[in-house]
Write the structure tokens for this entry.
Amino acid sequence: MDSPTQGTRQINSEEAVADAIRRMIVESVFDEDERITESSLSRKLDASRTPVRMALKLLHAEGLLIKLEGRGYKARLFSEEAHVHATQVRGVLEALAAQRLARNGLSSLNRERLDKSIEATGAIITRGIIDNEAIEAFAVANLIFHRTIMQGSDNPFIEDCLRRLEVMPGSGVGEVLATSRVDWSMNHIIVSHSQHLIIKKAIEAGDGVRAFTMMREHSSAPAEYHELF
């Protein structure tokens, strides 16, 4: 297998090495029973062993690597059940962010961002055509909506916890499920657009309970919506 850094300069920071290994795990570069060691990764990444060692400890703490007896680790595989669990956790965290934003109040900048996101999804519905252009436009608008609420919550721990979920495909903040992108219909976009409107209205009204309830439903049930439509 070619090195992920082939043709580039050596990476030696712990953060850069950890990011490279995360990508390898998400992209299923490692075999199910492959033993991952400092020496093997140092060669693959063209990195010094010290940052590799620290990165492995970090990813083990994050739950992405499983410690093996003796030396080495193996990559954690993401089952369908794991995706469901991650989506449920994301729903609660995003709901908490919406609740805090409702209680803290919308800044003019965050209000503008939410408005532009909703206008963009509304334009897709008005156009009435589902193609790659529409799906990409929705993905961008949806990401803006969710990230605005997360960042507007003014709680860095929410963002930190959500960032840990991003290593699992389809579980990042505001991410359109990659496995279902080709199956998106206008119904999916209409439902999401309608929920965005309700969530924004609750936030503007300072209704933290309503914002929490709707955001949790919106963020934790996309897989169920794909089964319904």
Remarks:
- The chain has two domains: 14-75, 80-228.
- The longest strand covers residues 65-67.
- Residues 1-9, 176-182 have pLDDT under 50 and may be disordered.
